[in-house]
Specification:
By secondary structure, the protein is of the alpha/beta class. The chain contains ten helices and 17 strands. A hairpin with an 8-residue loop joins β14 (324-330) and β15. α3 (72-80) packs parallel to α4 (97-105) and α4 packs across α5 (116-128). Bound molecules: ligand LLP.
């Protein structure tokens, strides 16, 4: 079964574009809500970096989630979309002064701090404003995640976070400062993680670190385990909504929380990944010697994941039910890496056919570029095509 998308209504719309199934997004948000309601001290912050299209942010902010931001631009987008500033967390290894100031002016919930120089600057800038910035330290737990090397973040060799051996030192440093308040620990081990064992390993590491802090009589109010829950790129229709039940339960069973402690999550891909499809039109079918190419009007500028990470996205021909043939589906960009899938079976393609590139809601539209002087793709809600 192919995805049901009303292609007859696309005639006047310029391709390529993103088509967001907002019903699926709402169902996903409803499941998250149902699951976290089981744990009164759990809080989910949507990782805006995955998709900041206003129509997506609007739905997510209405569902009551907080926001995880990594730039001043994301803080502004979150506030504009109605996320309350006291539910905004702000991470990133390189925060500029204006971005820190923006966070301070909006009294955001917390800065996730990744180094001592950053801690010092936040303290200074907060002093100028006569404020106290709440901070969590991002600790690098040296836990590997079974995912693509470019999207693991929790190994000692990565640029992220503060080394575990420095934890006590940075905490004591923060205690000496007047304009920062140390409220917790932050972690994130990577993205597109499907093995719960990785989250178990992180939980165990956090338990160890908490024991170490307690030996120094320090208990924190907040633990933030970041994001990372993956989606099923191979079978988006069988698994349109990730298994949030198992995800939260894994933490509930493995991460030992202290009395009154809150557990925070920063989920991006799992929230929006499956609701987005990149819709593209076939320009030409070109027969090579051993291959045939289906040349489409979307390129790596619209969805860079296959070119950048070798990521797989399912492709479907929405306009044809003819027997399947093998194609390399390629874009128009002047780069050999501008390929979506190779040797992939699609219902026979013709010029003008609409193709859907599936599971493109996360890190799709937001990572688009104007390389080759191309226009950025637009994003439409499925509601706009309803009869
Ligand atoms: N928190 C932090 C600190 C992060 O660095 C990230 C993602 C998240 C949360 C959200 O992770 P998620 O739940 O979406 O896995 N562009 C890549 C993914 C980069 C992820 C960067 N950090 C891709 O297309 O696969």
């Amino acid at each position: 079964m192919k995805i049901q998308i009303p292609i007859e209504k696309f005639k006047d719309i310029k391709t390529p574009f993103y088509y967001y199934d907002v019903k699926l997004l709402q169902q996903t948000l409803d499941v998250i809500k149902k699951e976290i309601d089981k744990y009164p001290n759990y809080y989910v912050h949507y990782a805006i970096k995955a998709n900041a299209n206003p129509l997506i942010l609007d739905l997510i902010s209405k569902s009551g989630l907080g926001a995880d931001c990594v730039s001043g631009g994301e803080i502004s987008a979150a506030i504009k979309a109605g996320f309350p500033s006291d539910k905004i967390v702000f991470a990133g290894v390189g925060k500029s002064d204006w971005e820190i100031n923006l966070g301070l002016e909006n009294d955001i919930f917390c800065f996730n701090v990744e180094s001592i120089p950053e801690l010092e600057i936040i303290n200074e800038l907060a002093a100028v404003k006569n404020k106290v910035a709440k901070i969590c330290f991002r600790i690098n737990p040296d836990v590997g995640a079974h995912t693509h090397a470019n999207i693991t973040t929790g190994l000692a060799e990565n640029k992220f976070g503060i080394a575990m051996e420095d934890m006590e030192f940075v905490v004591s440093k923060a205690a000496e400062m007047k304009n920062v308040e140390f409220i917790g620990l932050h972690f994130h081990i990577g993205s597109q993680i499907l093995e719960m064992d990785d989250f178990i390993a992180l939980s165990k590491r956090i338990n160890e670190l908490q024991n170490r802090l307690e030996a120094e009589n320090i208990t924190v109010k907040h633990i933030n385990v970041g994001g990372g829950l993956g989606i099923d790129y191979l079978k988006p229709d069988e698994n349109p909504i990730p298994n949030f039940t198992d995800f939260f339960k894994t933490y509930a069973e493995n991460l030992i929380l202290r009395k009154g402690q809150c557990l925070h999550f920063e989920l991006g891909r799992a929230v929006v990944g499956q609701c987005g499809n990149l819709i593209t039109k076939t320009l030409f079918i070109k027969k090579g010697i051993q291959k045939q190419f289906c040349i489409v009007d979307a390129g790596m500028t619209d969805l860079i994941r296959p070119a950048l990470y070798g990521a797989f996205h399912l492709v479907e021909n929405l306009s044809s039910n003819e027997p399947k043939e093998k194609y390399d589906v390629v874009g128009p960009i002047c780069e050999s890496s501008d390929v979506f899938v190779k040797d992939f079976e699609l219902n026979k393609c013709h010029r003008g056919d609409y193709l859907a590139i599936r599971s493109a809601g996360a890190y799709g539209e937001i990572m688009a570029s104007t390389y080759n002087c191309r226009e950025l793709p637009k994003g439409y809600s499925s509601e706009e095509f309803k009869s």
